[in-house]
Amino acid sequence: MVFWWPILVIVFALAICRFLLMLIPPNVSSIDVDVSDVLDDGSQTKEESYIYIPRRGKAVQLDRVQCYEPATMKYLGFFPALTTDEVKEHVAHARKAQKVWGTSSFKQRRQFLRILLKYIVEHQHLICE
């Protein structure tokens, strides 16, 4: 009887593993994303650059926003500033997208998140740069 107990535990563990593997989809779709806007375009500075604190009285730039990495305060470059109308347009677009997302089923959301996860795993080197 002592001999059968470890075998029974191993068989039970294998059965659980097979069941869990059945839950993983065999094929996940892929997405292609244009990354030309995040590749080095010359606006980024050297690797050792850090935040620049402007002098008092210096004019504020209204047409662009300086971007910094929050963890290291490394300077990343500039991003064009949006006007009030552009912000309202973006908010309206986001609200419309939320309505579509809200009507989607759990199965559709799960499939989308799996596609997104696959993309993140495959492109983590680009995302982490």
TrEMBL record:
Domain of life: Eukaryota
Domain Aldehyde dehydrogenase residue range list: 63-127
Signal peptide: 1-30
Gene3D superfamilies in the record: Aldehyde Dehydrogenase, Chain A, domain 1
Keywords attached to this entry: Signal
SUPFAM superfamilies: ALDH-like
Keyword Signal: yes
Recorded GO MF terms: oxidoreductase activity
Protein name listed in UniProt: Aldehyde dehydrogenase 22A1
